[in-house]
Amino acid sequence: MLRKTALILLALFLPGFALADDLKVELRDRAMSGQGKPALILVANKPVLQAAVDLTGPAGKRLYLRSGRMEAGARKELEIDAPIGRSTWRGNLEVQFADGTSGEMALSFSVYVSAGLTLVPPKREDVDRRAGTVRFRIQGGKPSHCEYSVTFDGKPERSGVTRFGADARDGDYVTVTWPSHGDDDVVLRIRLVCHDTEGFYSPTLEIYPWEAPIAHDDVVFDTGKWDIKDEEKPKLDAAYEAIAEGIRRYGKVLEREIKLYIVGHTDTVGDAASNKVLSLRRAEAIARYFRRKGVTIPILYTGFGEERPLVPTPDETDEPRNRRAEYIISVEDPVPARWQKL
Question: What share of the chain is helix, strand, coil (3-state, %, to 5)?
Fold first, then answer.
């Protein structure tokens, strides 16, 4: 995106002929690839039979542009098929007017075509809430600065601008910094709009580096089973109340849809493949219980089996602390996984 269209008056004409009085030439010197092109803009102050432009650009590329007939007061755009980046063009403009006069103008100018400024979303570990920083990559232009706004849980929003040095380059990692409130900051959302040195700016990038784990007592399942026993349901009922409170609290703060994630784990007793299936089925059973109980937000679930033990153990070790589940409220996936939607 570009904040405004740049029009530059070109006033290079041959001595002895006031072509600029009869035909004004403007230059739109910047454009976004796929959304337009740079252009010479001809403004006729008297009728024109034909205007012809002969240009030479990078790598000897030649362009021949023609206007056709123009009445007095008419405007004609001659688009320049320029490559991505900045390029220099030189050439000549010849004009034949309806009254039989003619003239020519030497042209020399540069234009810039942006590929589109792109912000590569950061990983969760690239957000440091205590230091008040986020590190990410900008592609498509030489970075100039980024505007940010940071939303916290229970604390005032921070907004401002981080500017980059002259040595910043297209594709570089940059760091945006905001003033933190303290070590206990909970960052709910970061909004970024970044600009390049040519005046283009990116679409808004929203980052949600937050998640709310729900404290709970783990359901005890029979060996190899995923049916929820009646005596275990009070544990899920208590967890449901905590989930409902989290939905009420964060649903009002965030404009994006929040989700409930259920993650199942097992100990190392049994083979890994069976344990993965078992953990998935148990996570699904818990998810379905919460849905029947009244959770209306999207619920996603997955099972890691014995892959991510809370307590590392040898194989075939009966460890109750590893037979667990996680309940997490978040906007984005809390961990990379093959999430299944209920």
Answer: 15, 40, 45
